[in-house]
Design a protein that fits this description.
Residues 24-53 form the Invertebrate defensins family profile domain. Residues 1-19 form the signal peptide. Pfam families: Defensin_2. Keywords: Disulfide bond, Signal. By secondary structure, this protein is of the alpha+beta class. The chain has a domain at 22-59. The protein is 49% helix and 17% strand. The protein is built from two helices and two strands. A two-stranded antiparallel ribbon has the order 1-2. The model has no long low-confidence stretch (mean pLDDT 79).
């Protein structure tokens, strides 16, 4: 029974860590605009990466 409880707690801790990480699209886009790009969006399996983009081959 203790082993099951341990694994349940471990799974909950991992899930909460994953939920707290990631990328917020508004700050991501603002960051990209501040460094000269047109905007930005979150990408990746868990939306954890900020990806900057340009329109019309600006960069």
């Amino acid at each position: 029974m203790k082993i099951i409880f341990f694994f349940l707690v471990a799974i909950l801790l991992v899930a909460s860590a994953i939920a707290g990480s990631g990328c917020n699209v508004v700050p991501c886009s603002a960051h990209c605009r501040s460094i000269g790009h047109f905007g930005g969006y979150c990408e990746g399996p868990h939306l954890e990466n900020c990806h900057c983009y340009d329109v019309g081959g600006k960069h």
